[in-house]
Specification:
The complex is a heterodimer of chains A (225) and B (428).
Chain A lengths: L3 H24 L3 H34 L5 H24 L3 H33 L4 H19 L2 E5 L7 H11 L6 E6 L6 H7 L2 E7 L5 E7 L2
Parallel strand pairs in A: 1-2
Antiparallel strand pairs in A: 2-4, 3-4
Chain B lengths: L13 H24 L10 H31 L6 H25 L2 H27 L6 H27 L7 H32 L7 H24 L2 H30 L8 H25 L1 H4 L7 H37 L13 H23 L1 H35 L1
Classes of the chains: A alpha+beta (225), B mainly alpha (428).
């Protein structure tokens, strides 16, 4: 990765793949998996926007002295994309397949034409304007990566002790659908939830099981990196 | 020098839309021609009706929509300012319509003044278009392969136009030139140069991005377009010689051209087959039909080269043309219109509606998937009927014509409803 164009283009493809995964799950009515993938996509996208808006665009604007040019238009498109994200989240929450697929079609074309402009025009321009300090910019952007993830990282507690099956499983699956990348779910349960483990494996979650002194089980779950 | 950026200058909605809404109308006219004249339209390559039909399709449908897409893409994808884009669109669009109508009526009536009129309008349309596009394009380094191949496509259009002028002059007796040879060259540059190169250029970007497939192998994107262009030049040079040895060489070049086209079709089919996105998408169906038709056309052409008795069959005169123009060209354009038009309308709508704090509806409400899928099946049946009509012109030409009208009219209605949707949403 030696140019800004390559670095960010690669990140576009990563977000695209997550977006398509979410959509494919919706097609199959697999709402839980769709939720997980969508959250990964949303986190990835927000992170991508943060790299651009906070580091790259700022550096570009400082160097060129132009804050009303292409970067401002790209910020505008980011706002439009965020608006579609909200619509997608609503249809995801309502499990409305038609609405979701309609908005995801809009999203796909919106994002792809946005990528096209950035990859063909803006990134090469930034590589040109920021010649010599490209690696610093890329470093600064990758720091945002870890920084923002650490800042957002949270532990969500879920106590399902005393509930009758299948309620504990349902509760944890609901919670996992909303779990952000980087966050962790801490589940407290009075017996070891063996059926849960293969489900976690299949959906790309990592987990750790601890037996507490009071004989309750504590299961820590997070998205595999 | 830093290239000038034109993000904000997304052309006005009416600029590309006028081309896209005009193209299906010419397709309907082509269908009427088939119905009106019947079998003679699809019996021999050289009948005036066939020539009129061919130009209605290549100029009125293919070139019309490709020009609209080109003006839009140059500005948005490559960041080139088309100078005075409103005026350019108005002149190119108007001159292309008048030129196509004049040329079609000239073929049907054999009236020399009409040929002259067609030459004036079409020369105006293409000179203006090339001037507006190439001026900006030549200043940019061609590091992007879509852009490099697009430029070659425009050069091919330039050559096609030039050969068209010579062919017409020979036809009306103004110049003493070998008419058949010129016509072959004109057709080769128009179809294999302009149409194919532009489709290839656009496919490099559009297939991976909008249809969500892997990208074309870099070695292919790097060399395919330029090779095809170079082969056309060699083929032209050999064609002008026209001795027996040169003829053999020119067959070898033809085989290479076929190989290049087949390579493009096979790779595209492979990409579509392995695409990541699982949502049903009408544009994909159109791409399948388009690339499969191109492949079939290659097979037919190769068979004709290897076994001359196949090339002598009456249906061979027109079947490759139908597969190429309707199967390959019209299908891909029909499919892409279903991607481009709803997006453009949505894009303009949401920016207008955002000002008054409203949200634009999702893209699938602008052209419902159902309407597009049904029109696709009609298009597919029409293509089959037209291919069969080249074998049985007596029985099937009129039926194929009626189907062609139905399919194109339906496309037009779908696009028109999208436009009306835009108006209605703004008036609300």
């Amino acid at each position: 990765m030696n140019t800004i164009t390559q670095y960010l283009t690669h990140d576009h493809r990563r977000c695209d793949d997550l977006f398509v995964d979410a959509e494919n799950h919706v097609c199959k009515d697999a709402w839980l998996e769709a939720g997980t993938c969508f959250n990964q996509f949303r986190t990835g996208l927000e992170h991508h926007f943060a790299m651009e808006e906070q580091v790259l665009f700022a550096a570009f604007e400082q160097k060129t002295g132009n804050t009303q040019g292409p970067t401002e238009i790209m910020r505008g498109e980011h706002r439009q994309i965020r608006a579609i994200i909200k619509l997608l989240m609503q249809s995801l929450a309502l499990q409305d397949k038609d609405e979701y697929l309609g908005h995801s079609e809009t999203m796909n074309i919106m994002i792809q034409q946005h990528n096209l402009k950035e990859e063909n025009m803006l990134y090469p321009m930034t590589d040109q304007v920021l010649t010599g300090i490209q690696s610093d910019i890329i470093d600064a952007m990758s720091v945002i990566e870890t920084g923002s993830q650490r800042a957002m990282s949270a532990v969500i507690n879920l106590d399902v002790c005393g509930l009758e099956p299948p309620e504990p499983l349902e509760r944890v699956l609901d919670a996992l659908a909303k779990l952000e990348v980087g966050d962790r779910l801490c589940m407290l349960i009075d017996r070891e939830p063996r059926p849960l483990y293969p489900i976690l494996e299949r959906n790309h979650f990592s987990y750790e099981t601890k037996t507490r002194d009071d004989c309750l089980f504590e299961i820590l779950i997070w998205h595999k990196q | 020098m830093q290239r000038k950026l034109s993000f904000e200058q997304t052309p006005e909605l009416s600029i590309p839309l006028r081309f896209f809404l005009t193209a299906p109308v010419f397709a309907v006219l082509a269908g009427l021609l088939l119905v009106w004249f019947g079998p003679q339209a699809l019996a021999v390559r050289w009948s005036p009706v066939t020539l009129a039909l061919t130009h209605l399709l290549t100029l009125g449908v293919l070139t019309m929509s490709m020009t609209g897409a080109l003006i839009q893409l140059l500005q948005v994808v490559v960041g080139i300012d088309v100078p005075r884009v409103g005026l350019t669109a108005a002149i190119v669009h108007g001159a292309l319509i008048l030129g196509t109508c004049a040329l079609t009526s000239a073929f049907l009536s054999s009236a020399i003044p009409l040929f002259q009129l067609a030459l004036v309008f079409l020369s105006l349309a293409f000179t203006w278009l090339l001037g507006a596009c190439l001026a900006g394009m030549w200043r940019i380094k061609a590091d992007n392969m879509t852009f490099a191949v697009m430029r070659l496509a425009l050069v091919a259009l330039c050559i096609t136009g030039g050969l068209g002028v010579l062919t017409t002059s020979a036809l009306i007796g103004a110049l003493a030139l070998p008419l058949i040879s010129l016509t072959n060259l004109h057709a080769a540059w128009g179809l294999l140069g302009w149409v194919t190169l532009l489709v290839i250029a656009v496919a490099y970007q559009v297939v991976p991005m909008f249809l969500v497939t892997s990208v074309y192998p870099p070695r292919v994107t790097r060399y395919l377009g330029a090779s095809l262009f170079a082969l056309l030049i060699v083929w032209t040079a050999l064609h002008v010689q026209s001795t027996v040895t040169w003829h053999r060489l020119s067959s070898i070049v033809s085989v290479l051209v076929i190989a290049a086209l087949a390579l493009f079709s096979v790779i595209t089919l492979g990409l579509l087959w392995k695409r990541k996105r699982r949502v049903p998408d009408t544009a994909i169906f159109f791409w399948y039909v388009s690339t499969a038709s191109l492949l079939a056309c290659c097979g037919l052409w190769l068979a004709g080269l290897v076994r001359p008795e196949i090339a002598d069959m009456p249906c061979f005169a027109l079947m490759p043309g139908v597969l190429f123009i309707v199967g390959f060209g019209y299908s891909v354009i029909n499919g892409m219109l279903y991607k481009i038009v709803p997006f453009l309308i949505w894009y303009h709508l949401q920016s207008r509606l955002a000002d008054i704090g409203m949200k634009a509806p999702n893209i699938r409400k602008i052209i419902p998937e159902q309407a597009a899928v049904r029109q696709f099946y009609v298009h597919l049946l029409t293509l089959c009927a037209m291919v069969l009509a080249t074998i049985f012109p007596g029985q099937l030409t009129r039926l194929a014509g009626v189907m062609f009208i139905a399919s194109s009219l339906w496309l037009w209605v779908n696009l028109l409803r999208a436009t009306l949707f835009y108006r209605a949403a703004l008036l609300k």
